[in-house]
Amino acid sequence: MQSRYRHQSDRRPAGDALGTHDARAGQRPRLARPVSVPPDRHTARWKSYLRDCDSLLDFVEPMQVSGRVTRVAGLVMECVGLRLAVGSACTIPMANGIRVEAEVVGFDGDRLFLMPQSDVEGIVPGSRVFPIEASVPKPGSVAHPRRRPSDRARHLPVGDALLGRVVDGAGRPLDGLGPLGAQHMAPISARPVNPLDRAPITETLDVGVRAINSMLTVGRGQRLGLFAGTGVGKSVLLGMIARYTTADVIVVGLIGERGREVKEFIEQILGPVGRARSAVVAAPADSPPLMRLQGAAYATAIAEHFRDEGKSVLLIMDSLTRYAMAQREIALAIGEPPATKGYPPSVFAKLPVLVERAGNGLEGGGSITAFYTVLSEGDDQQDPIADAARGILDGHIVLDRHLAEAGHYPAIDIEQSISRAMHGITSTPHQHAARRLKQLYSRYQRSRDLISVGAYAPGSDPVLDQAIALHDRIEAFLCQEIPDKVDMQESLTQLTALFE
Fold first, then answer.
1. Which of 423, 458, 476 marks a domain boundary?
2. Where are the alpha helices (DSSP H) in 163-319?
3. Distance of alpha carbon 161 from alpha carbon 279, whole angstroms
4. Cα separation of 325 and 283, whole Å?
5. Residues 424-436, mean pLDDT to the nearest whole number
6. Are residues 280 and 327 located together in one domain of the fold?
7. What would the pLDDT profile of 189-206 be if each residue is shown by its tens digit?
8. Do residues 394 and 414 both lie within one domain?
9. Do both 97 and 228 map to the same domain?
């Protein structure tokens, strides 16, 4: 056959190969195939589409597999018959048509430990467990194959559609305003940013609170902790920051709070103005521990999406302690031994993973300025979670109960509070004035008992004399009513006027 074709090819007229025709035979010209023709835009798009289809075939399972529930003990279910990675999502259908979603939190041999996202009532021995595949992207929507573990994790809606909305830890609306209609999905567990690629903190962020703007200046991309006991006004202070900040977008994560406080924070403290540019993720105290963990990660993923768009984002997480408690419940339920005050080691490993996702993005990009509230049990600042949070945050603001009981709002203790980024983003006169105010305030507090009983003789200490003379003005400067907004420039002007 090959010899015959080669023989026929040899007998073909030379004019045919050159694209000419024989005028005597009356044949139409036959053009030869060009050596190389650059593909047009339409062809290039189809080739790119087919390449994406070929790469996405790796994410399609050839058959549906399932496992069986063998044990339910407390918060954890055990399953056999599946080989899934930690963090994978599963669903357990029940006889009444309801499906319980769960997540793989550990394994022991062939047994998987599942943590449900809702109540487990109705699950019977031998219930089938089906893995939930990660949503496969549409061809052409990604520039690279989804090969990382975070890309296979659960994806939830993000983007502008969440502004003004309230959702739970699974991305379901809680405000009764209908479906979200989000155009973008993102994994709740993102890869950490290379620290060398982060932009440095060089700009200030106006939060509208005089005591913070002047004494504890916040930088764009900074992560601060709000340390307070219960009932000292931390939610009110967060509401003031969210309402008066100059950030483009606000993301609020209400993790482990009482359900009543969730509605109050949204309607009364945040207000209509703050809510219009805010995305709220609520995982109340009655939610399963997995939903509280997922709610914190989801709120961070929403903030990361806006940061990647080049926006300045304010992330408020209330509270980091409830997040740690949820992880403690899960770790103890799967058999992890307790360590410091009942907290397993995995708790202290997860805290920096969550916090490090906030901060500045790449050079010239957006930023996430984060406030994490930390509950101090019994107003003990040496609580394990509080102590660990101070080491991984870029500053801490301490609210004092005695100041709150005396009607000093916001009850910020400027002696114990510090902003580690303030030195690099403020001017030298500003730093001198803030340091001078703190010295006078501290000197007065140390001699408060002597002054109150009249045991101090004026003139003995010139610094203390000045502190006594300026005490009322300093107290008025550090206090601020909820409806009042004091921007950065006005805060510096009033700070300088104290010593004139």
1. 423
2. 210-215, 234-244, 259-264, 271-276, 289-308
3. 9
4. 13
5. 95
6. yes
7. 887 788 898 999 999 999
8. yes
9. no
Task: Looking at 136-196, list the stretches that DSSP marks H as alpha helix, in order from N- to C-terminal side.
Answer: 149-152
Classified as helix, coil or strand, 288 is coil
443 and 489 within one domain: yes
- Per-residue pLDDT at 32 exceeds 70: no
CATH of the domain at 468: 1.20.1270.330
Query: Could you tell me where the beta strands, DSSP code E, fall in 181-222?
Result: 184-187
| Residue 9 confidence (pLDDT) above 50 | no
What gap in Å lies between CA 115 and CA 74, rounded to an integer?
10
**Above 50 in pLDDT, residue 475?**
yes
> Do 222 and 313 contact (CB within 8 A), yes or no?
no
If asked whether residues 310 and 371 sit together in one domain, one would say: yes
Both structure tokens of 87: 């963090």
Could you say which of 423, 441, 466 is where a domain stops?
423
User: What gap in Å lies between CA 246 and CA 241, rounded to an integer?
Assistant: 9
CB 315 within 8 A of CB 370: yes
- Residue 34 in any domain: the answer is no
DSSP annotation of 161? G
The burial class, CB within 10 Å (0-12 / 13-18 / 19+), for 451 is: middle
Q: What is the structure's pLDDT at 89?
A: 86
Does 126 fall in a domain? yes
How many distinct structural domains can be found in the chain?
3
pLDDT value at residue 420: 94
Asked, for residue 412, whether it belongs to a domain, the answer is yes
The residue segments making up the domain with residue 267 are 155-423
3-state SS of 346-364 is HHHHHHHHHHCCCEECCCC
The first and second tokens of residue 83, run together, are: 């080989």
How many other β-carbons are positioned within 10 Å of the β-carbon of residue 168? 18
Enter the pTM of the model: 0.81
DSSP letter at 183? S
What does the alpha-carbon distance between residue 422 and residue 394 come to, in Å, rounded to a whole number? 10
Say what the pLDDT of residue 487 is: 94
Same domain? 410 vs 477 = no
* Residue 470 domain-assigned (yes or no): yes
Residue type for position 237: L
Least-confidence region, from 80-89, 308-317, 472-481: 80-89
